[in-house]
Amino acid sequence: MFDSFSSENQDHNLLKCMGVRQALGLPNIGYDALSPTIRSGLTGPRHTTSILSSSSAKKQWEQLEICPNGVAKNRLNAHKFVAKNRHFRLSVQDCAIIQGFPESWLFNGAVYMILGQVGNSVPPPMAYHVAKALLQTLI
Torsion angle of alpha carbons 71, 65, 119, 134, nearest 10°? Predict the structure, then answer.
């Protein structure tokens, strides 16, 4: 049986899991955590730029001091429109980073379409480990 947690199966060159604030390079506020589920526009209301998935996710985003509504096309636009509570406003690129995509990954389309792609994707680090486990199982 394949043991994905044994030390011989770990790729030590991959970045370890980190909190949202650390992943985005935000200042330390004394709290950081993994991201709540990123709701995609393809499974919820169409043409929305919100990634908010539930009331519990809303509380977690508030603790992280990140605004899950009004995701901007790019970081410049995100910084231009400050959230009412002054929390960090996300860009499409930020959502992709949270989901595990490298900063260099390019997406095309309207914001709600890109959020659909990001929110419905298998995170690249997870896809890597699944593919690696399959390869080792088949060899």
Answer: 150
pTM score = 0.80
Return per-residue pLDDT of the chain as tens, 139 residues: 333 444 454 555 555 678 999 999 999 999 999 999 887 755 555 567 888 888 999 999 999 999 999 999 999 999 999 888 999 999 999 999 999 999 999 999 999 889 988 988 888 888 999 999 999 999 8
| 12 burial type by CB count under 10 A (0-12 exposed, 13-18 middle, 19+ buried) | exposed
Q: Where are the domains of the chain?
A: 16-122
Specify the 3-state DSSP secondary structure of 64.
helix
